[in-house]
Amino acid sequence: MDPSTYLDANTASKIDQDLMGGVLNYSLDQLMELAGLSCSQIIYDEVENKTDKILVICGPGNNGGDGLVISRWLKEYGMNVTVLYPKLATKDLFIKLIHQLKAYHVPIMTEIEEKQYKTYNIIIDAMFGFSFDANNGIRSPYDSIFNTMVAHQQEQKVISIDVPSSWKVDGNDEKKQQFS
Fold this sequence. Notes:
The chain is of the alpha/beta class.
């Protein structure tokens, strides 16, 4: 894909602000639901084997919230999905999303061993989105999860939401080469 077709972080942030203000006045949960639904539909359409085991790794912010919504929709489509959510959120929106996942009987883990990680065919990276500051690095527990994901990217399909976690969205970052 031509890099000129990517949004930079400022443009993506401005789009979010425009959607949540002004004439449209979408709420964060509405935008998260729309993003999660859209991504889940694309993932469902692109996955050849609908019985593949899918691990959705959710970060602490809005990208993680998108991952929670994606997980619910994939379960609704009949897919075999598990959530890895190392830092359970305390914000009301995220608590509701977790409640919904439990109602759908989606397994939610807060940690994973490497041998468990290998049992999944598809990894959905919903750790960090376009507002992630790569200059500060990835902190625990996400650093070890990220390193495990990168180490096994040849064995499993990795699907990133927004952008691959660790990407420095604005600029040329060597970590952009870690995912193919």
